[in-house]
């Protein structure tokens, strides 16, 4: 990777916050931490422990390939059934072939992940508290890739218009998109203002690798598996993903964590968070103080997308009306709210597309606020391992149900019926036979359904 000197001055170390350099313009380096940051197909990886983070994504990649392989085998198995109707056979064959092809596509796309070639140290990684969230898989936002670079022109154009409108009036300083996904909005903004440095940050390597390839003017072939296929041939559709033209030089992709954004303070004229604030695992009030650090006075924050806050604590699931006061407390003023209806994920192969009421909020930084503490993903008792594991109420409840579940699972021997299991539970005087039967049935329903469910990697 060659690092352009004008952008080198924007970056800071995600470990120690000191500025980064690019000796011989080959890659970014922190002299305080003595750390060279690698790159993934030209995209700098600016996370606190790059090797372990890449290792963790690599593991998810392998698990995803295994899962696809199992799905393909299952489809092949079903295809062996001679009683299948002809249309069902065609559908299953289409899917089986597509899964096999998808494995090859993903191996090709994610090949740069395999080339890191270093040994990961999981303990250091944990000590830095920078784990990739376990509910976040490589394919969590997979449909976005197809929307961005194949069939989403209408949605992409409306999104770019709305965000560009909200950026009107600010100066020509650099712009940062946090949670930029597969990069289409960043690309459109960069093409619209080629003299303005535009940085697109995300932590998902699959999305970034697609963004990197299409930005170079390349084509990525990936199969789309629509959520609600319209016709038989729509169960799996081969898509050729590409950008309208090669991206201009002012667009820079970065792999990093938005909660530890690797930049020097106050270097951006605008921060844009497209469809991010409601999915990020941090309360909006805290995250707003992080965005504040990145902007100088009068710098602008543009929030675009949904306000369906998914944070676990009810107090963090804000209503529209609460957003303005949170922004004010985080040092923002001149808050402007807009709403618009735009197409959302309207794949031509799916019945699932809809129209979505998005919000476009712009807020200008009025004053600096106290720097928030470093984002940590795991508590001390997990990371350091020398403090007592807290006997919290949820843990106690989980322990009790795990014991019962383990006992019930131990009764499954391939011979006992549900009623036989209930009889054992009654003999052990754990429950009456009637209670046991319905409790075991509920438990087995859950186990059965879990076993049928897909997991995202
Ligand atoms: C709902 S998607 C939106 C993607 C893109 N902005 C779009 O509109 O298509 C949320 C994006 O945020 C990214 N993301 C979530 N948490 C992140 C974090 N802590 N750091 C960086 N990216 C994150 C995800 O990988 C995903 O690409």
Query: What's the CATH first level of the largest domain?
Result: Alpha Beta
Bound molecules: S-adenosylmethionine
Q: What is the overall shape?
A: globular
How far is the first residue's CA from the last residue's CA? 28 Å
| Fraction in beta strands | 5-15%
Domain module count: 3
Average of the residue pLDDT scores: 91
Number of helices: 15
Ranges where pLDDT stays below 50 over 5 or more residues in a row are none
Largest sheet: 7 strands, mixed
Assign the CATH topology of the largest domain.
Rossmann fold
Q: Spell out the helices and strands N to C.
A: HEEEEHHHHHHEHEHEEEEHEHEEHHHH
Name of the CATH homologous superfamily of the largest domain: Vaccinia Virus protein VP39
The number of distinct β-strands equals: 13
What is the structural class?
alpha/beta
Helix content: 40-55%
Strand order of the largest sheet: 9-6-5-10-11-13-12
Description of the molecule:
The protein has 457 residues and is of the alpha/beta class. It has three domains: 5-40, no CATH class; 50-60 and 121-365, Rossmann fold; 392-452. It has 15 helices and 13 strands. The chain has helices at 5-8, 50-79, 86-109, 111-114, 122-127, 142-151, 153-167, 184-192, 205-215, 284-294, 320-329, 380-383, 393-411, 418-427, 433-452, and strands at residues 29-30, 35-36, 39-40, 43-44, 175-178, 198-202, 220-224, 237-241, 251-255, 270-274, 300-305, 332-344, 354-365. Strands 9-6-5-10-11-13-12 form a seven-stranded mixed β-sheet, sandwiched between helices. Strands 1-2 form a two-stranded antiparallel sheet. Strands 3-4 form a two-stranded antiparallel sheet. Strand 1 and strand 2 (35-36) form a beta hairpin. Helix 2 packs antiparallel against helix 3 (86-109), helix 7 (153-167) packs across helix 8 (184-192) and helix 14 packs across helix 15. It is globular and about 75 Å long. The mean pLDDT is 91. Bound molecules: S-adenosylmethionine. S-adenosylmethionine binds at residues 141, 144, 179-181, 202-204, 207, 257-259, 274-276, 279-280. S-adenosylmethionine (SAM) is lined by residues 141, 144, 179-181, 202-204, 207, 257-259, 274-276, 279-280.
